[in-house]
Every structure is written in C-alpha cells, then in structure tokens.
Design goal:
This protein is an alpha+beta fold. The protein contains four helices and five strands.
Length: 98
C-alpha cells in the first residue's frame, strides 16, 4: 500500500491572499497532520512550536476557517482542545486505497 501526501495547487492558490502568519500556520498543519487530514492541537502548543503569538495564531486559524482551508471541531477526548480538518480539496494525506 502506497502512502502519500497531495497538495492541489489550483485550490491551494487561495493561500496567496492570506497573511504570511496564516501561511506559516498552514505549513505547520502540513507537517503535523495525521492520515485523514486531521490535526489535533491547542492554541498554546501551536504558538510555542511556530513561535507565533497566541493572538496571531487565533487570527490565522480564523482566516484559514473563513477561507475554507480548514474546519475546526472540538476534540472528542479533550474538550479544551480543537481538532482541525484540512479541506481535502486543498490537500490530502492518505493511503493509495483512500
């Protein structure tokens, strides 16, 4: 079974209009994502890893949500954390059978 990551440039062009901090957050997501396009993280952790202020992380995440790049949902195991789904029309991580 082949494992892969795909980034669709035509759909990803929406990031051209985003702020640099927002693009940096999206790059963080591409590094951290799990199969099925999910990233589990909290604002404080994202801020520490990316060296972006918590306030800017919140703004950047909202910009990604507003542009349809990610969807935010509560983590089922820990309601204090969020899960983020990367829009599969922009990028996908999976197996050849997915």
């Amino acid at each position: 079974m082949l494992k892969f990551k795909k980034f669709f440039q035509a759909q990803g062009a929406i990031l051209n209009n985003c702020k640099p901090t927002t693009v940096k957050l999206f790059n963080y997501f591409l590094i951290q994502w799990a199969y099925g396009n999910y990233v589990e993280a909290d604002i404080k952790s994202i801020s520490a890893i990316t060296d972006i202020s918590e306030r800017s992380v919140k703004r950047g995440l909202q910009e990604l949500v507003d542009n349809g790049v990610i969807v935010r949902d509560k983590d089922l195991n820990d309601k204090r954390r969020n899960m983020y789904l990367i829009n599969p029309h922009i990028a996908w991580k999976g197996n050849s059978s997915d």
